[in-house]
Amino acid sequence: MEEKKKVVLSLIQPTGVPTLGNYLGALKNWVMMSKEYDCLFGEADLHAITVRTPPAELKKRCLDMFAILIAMGLDPEKSTIFCQSHVPAHAQLGWILDCYTQFGEASRMTQFKDKAAKHADNVNLGLFTYPTLMAADILLYNADYVPVGDDQKQHLELTRDIANRFNGIYGDFFKVPEPFIGKKGARIMSLQEPDKKMSKSDTNQKSFILVTDSPDVIVRKIKSAITDSEASVYYSESKPGVSNLMEIYSVCTGKTYEQITDEFAGRGYGDFKSAVAEAVAEELKPLRTEYEKLINDKAYLTECAKKGAEKANRIAGRTVNKCMKKIGFWQY
Ligand code: ATP
Ligand code: LTN
After folding, report:
1. Tally: H helices and E strands in the chain
2. Beta carbon of 148 within 6 Å of any ligand 2 atom
3. Which H or E run contains 10?
4. Nearest C-alpha to atom 11 of ligand 2 is from which residue?
């Protein structure tokens, strides 16, 4: 008998065009995994409204992100690509899981503490219950693996705790998921402050590369990346700027750090930066070309979103109904 494929699920917030960090740390793994597993990928627009965004901007970002997911190589015929708010079961199960999560547990989430400090004028309850909605995203689909960057590990741990607790009360019901954190590219740093992670919400435009940046912009941003005064290319904790560029170059070309050091022995940072910029532009070129085509075809994007939502609703609707039955809700 043919073995059933493992289920992979991940979501990304449509809070802007993804950076090279998001791409190398998380999204590239999605594309790789989509070739092997039964995959569901989505945009977490319900999570995105924990930060205030003008309505037209939210809509634009959702369309943009959807186009990027397809442009980077996910096939809507093979994977389920969907928008979270098109599947009401996420909010339903999110509420249910709130009732199986302790206040103390949620209070310990470091992302909550960071975001509460960053958006001190809007510390809403959604920011606090963000991880239980994320747990619902995952548990609705019985996901085996969840590809994310380093920073989401704690939320995955909480999801596992909630699933185990629920199973302990009602008998085995939820699949307890495993995180999938790639080694290479799991943490790409800011080009301007290489001790901070590259982040799309950074106010300094020169600190990040967006996946839709043109080759000219990529060259400019990499040329102005912070390095050091040694003019020698090798990987070391004491050289965070150069090491970050080496990491980027390595993920884009498949070369090891030693190969890169050999390649640039006796050459200055100018040559090195040109090569990094060219490799990044080359890596992002197919995505950018495809994105520009797709973003002008709203009818196709809508059709894909409808198809994704239909598939997701079928699975998620069934799970939430069964879960409510376990709890003892009056159903007819
Ligand atoms: P924001 O700036 O809006 O907080 P972000 O750019 O930090 O966003 P998220 O949208 O929170 O990123 O994350 C999307 C995915 O990208 C997550 O799986 C996250 O772990 C991963 N990720 C984010 N930043 C990096 C980075 N610098 N390097 C590698 N992976 C990253
Ligand atoms: N919290 C994640 C986005 C996210 C997610 C998910 C990731 C929302 N729901 C479910 C994996 C599985 C983030 O900020 N990167």
Report:
1. 14, 5
2. yes
3. strand 7-12
4. 10
Do the domains 205-292 and 7-185+298-327 match in fold? no
Burial (CB count within 10 angstroms: exposed 0-12, middle 13-18, buried 19+), residue 90: buried
* Two structure tokens written together for 49: 């409204």
CATH superfamily of 205-292: Tyrosyl-Transfer RNA Synthetase (1.10.240.10)
- CA of 19 from ligand 1 middle (Å) equals 8
> Per residue in 221-267, pLDDT tens?
999 999 999 989 999 999 999 999 999 999 999 999 999 999 999 99
Helices (H), 122-239: 125-139, 153-170, 215-223
Please check whether the domain covering 7-185+298-327 is classified as CATH 3.20.20.70. no
The closest alpha carbon to 317, from 47, 136, 147, belongs to 136
Instruction: Specify whether the CB–CB gap between 170 and 109 falls below 8 A.
Output: no
Q: What is the pLDDT of residue 151?
A: 82
The reported pTM is 0.93
Ligand 1 midpoint to CA 168 (Å): 33
Q: Is 63 in the pocket of ligand 2 (CB under 6 A)?
A: no
**Window from 140-144, 146-150, 151-155, 284-288 with minimum mean pLDDT:** 146-150
Task: For 317-326, give one letter per residue: b (16+ CB within 10 A) or e.
Answer: eebbeebeee
DSSP H or E run through 103? helix 103-107
* pLDDT tens string 282-301: 999 999 999 999 999 999 99
Instruction: Report the candidate in 88, 100, 95 with the shortest Cα–Cα distance to residue 170.
Output: 100
Q: For the chain, what are the domain ranges?
A: 7-185+298-327, 205-292
